[in-house]
Design brief:
Elements (H helix, E strand, L loop, with lengths): L2 E5 L5 E5 L4 H10 L6 E5 L5 H13 L2 E5 L4 E5 L7 E2 L1 H4 L9 H8 L1 E5 L12 H9 L3 E5 L2 E5 L7 E3 L5 H11 L4 E6 L5 H12 L3 E3 L5 E6 L6 E4 L4 H13 L3 E7 L5 H9 L3 E4 L12 E6 L9 E2 L11 H8 L5 E5 L9 H7 L3 E5 L2 E5 L8 E3 L3 H13 L3 E5 L2 H4 L5 H6 L4 E6 L2 E2 L2
Parallel strand pairs: 2-15, 3-14, 6-7, 10-11, 18-19, 22-23
Antiparallel strand pairs: 1-23, 1-24, 3-5, 4-5, 7-9, 8-9, 11-13, 12-13, 15-17, 16-17, 19-21, 20-21, 24-25
The chain binds ligand EPZ.
Ligand EPZ binds next to helix 1, helix 5, helix 6 and helix 12.
Length: 434
């Protein structure tokens, strides 16, 4: 298993290109099932989760072509040859659940393995199932699989108990083929959900309320192909903003949608970080993208945050923000309201001499003068990357194990950090990379 070794201390300076959003690409790839025409996604990063989704869709009969140099992925579901999403793949990546709605809509049936829990929580999919039942699907659970059938989906008004991201995406993709109008209330508003909805509209779907908590879908239109540029990864941008701040550096995040992170920039500025929106550049990949400069020269102030559904503080940036708060002058209370077990990074940060105590859904972080390097590991993507961030600032050497977690959501992380002066290397399978 690969490891990442970091020698802390260097102040990061330079440009960091932000890749396309993993959590947008995955449902966008599943949307290919909805049409027998090809769709091409641009700005697609090279991530292991995307490889897994490619494998799953290929299993269903989708022809997937990836061009890593052009960062594109073309998907053509001329016909669906298998409506079973097997446990072997789904258990490796929970996001596989987003094939459920499209398979049901396109084929009238789907047999999708229950994804099961993961390190950060039990992650049930009851809201997905209840929403699809509201559209007329007959669904039962047997042998660890969701068995769904319909003779034709019918539009309905659905009120989600929680603004579930992939739940909204599954129901949205099914609703585009439901006869009549579907209203999804308390829908998730994450930028990745909006990106999916915008892509579906470009394929011919009729969707109103995009970006609000009420989506209105006029179903029944056969969808065609499209070419879609994937929205930048706001969580990757947040992660590298913390990298710049925790090292008291000065970095420019390239191709960011600033407004996707308003609830993140504000506590960061209260912590003493200088955030500067730069003038749109001709080189920006898209008209609505811009570069954001993040610099830190003052002491880190303790700032309380609470995670919430978008547009609140993103749960996927909680571990990264906590790494910064371990070095604050004072204390910070961090409350996780989305998942019931998303503090796996806490004991590992404490092994680096952080001072953190957990109280149910909150932690109290008391700032320390410095962290010390250690051998650490985590069990989920964002917890793992928070340990890399801590290692950038720690005295001495930090070895982060189980790097495959990081490779799920961060493209070329050591390269992007090294270009800004970080002393970081990947050790493959226990031997130093040549
Ligand atoms: C998406 O997961 C993201 N994954 C997660 O990112 C992200 O943390 C999460 O949304 C919240 O923003 C993808 O988009 C692929 P939810 P998702 O359904 O859709 C409960 C990362 O690190 N719930 O919004 O699975 C659930 O248990 C990953 O990139 C139900 O109870 O999250 C959780 O407590 C991690 N029943 C809360 O809602 C349901 O049917 C939010 O879950 C569905 C969800």
């Amino acid at each position: 298993m690969d490891k990442i070794i970091i020698t802390g201390g260097p102040q990061l300076r330079g440009e960091i290109p932000i890749s396309g959003a993993k959590n947008a690409v995955l449902p966008l790839m599943a949307a290919s099932i909805l049409t027998d025409k090809p769709i091409t996604l641009q700005n697609v990063p090279k991530l292991s989760d995307i490889t897994l989704m490619s494998e799953l869709l290929s299993h269903h009969g989708v022809h997937v072509t990836r061009d890593f140099s052009a960062q594109t992925c073309t998907l053509h579901a001329a016909s669906i040859t298998d409506t079973v999403a097997p446990y072997e793949i789904v258990s490796k990546m929970r996001a596989s659940i987003v094939v459920l709605g499209p398979l049901l809509a396109r084929c009238g049936e789907a047999v999708v393995s229950l994804p099961g829990g993961c390190a950060i929580g039990t992650r049930p999919v009851n809201m997905h199932i209840d929403g699809l039942r509201s559209l007329g699907a007959d669904i039962y659970i047997e042998n660890g699989y969701i068995h769904a059938k319909t003779s034709g989906l019918v539009g309905a008004t659905i009120v989600l108990p929680f603004a579930t991201v992939t739940g909204t995406e599954n129901i949205l993709m099914a609703a585009v083929y439901a006869r009549g109008t579907t209203v999804i209330k308390n829908a998730a508003k994450e930028p990745e959900v909006c990106d999916l909805a915008n892509c579906l509209v470009s394929m011919g779907a009729q969707i109103g309320g995009i970006g609000t908590d009420t989506l209105v879908i006029d179903g029944g239109t056969r969808l065609g192909g499209t070419t879609h540029f994937v929205v930048p990864d706001r969580i990757e941008a947040a992660t590298y903003a913390i990298a710049g701040a925790i090292t008291h550096g000065d970095v420019v995040l390239k191709n960011v949608v600033y407004d996707d992170l308003l609830a993140f920039w504000q506590p960061l500025e209260r912590a003493g970080v200088v955030i500067e929106r730069m003038e749109p550049q001709a080189a920006n990949a898209h008209a609505s993208y811009e570069d954001v400069r993040v610099s830190m020269s003052a002491e880190i102030k303790g700032v309380d945050v609470m995670t919430e559904p978008h547009p609140g503080f993103p749960t996927d940036a909680q571990a990264q923000f906590m790494a910064l708060m371990t070095l604050c002058n004072g204390a910070a209370m961090i409350t996780e309201t989305i998942f019931e077990n998303r503090f796996m990074h806490v004991p590992e940060l404490c092994r680096m001499c952080a001072d953190i105590t957990t109280h149910n859904a909150s932690v109290l972080v008391r700032g320390v003068n410095h962290l010390t390097g250690a051998t650490v590991m985590a069990t989920d993507l964002r917890a793992s990357v928070s340990l890399v961030l801590a290692g950038l600032a720690a005295k001495g050497e930090t070895t982060v194990q189980r790097v495959y977690h990081i490779d799920r959501g961060y493209e070329r992380i050591e390269e992007k950090l090294r270009t800004c002066g970080a002393e970081i290397e990947r050790v493959q399978g226990g031997s130093t990379a040549l």
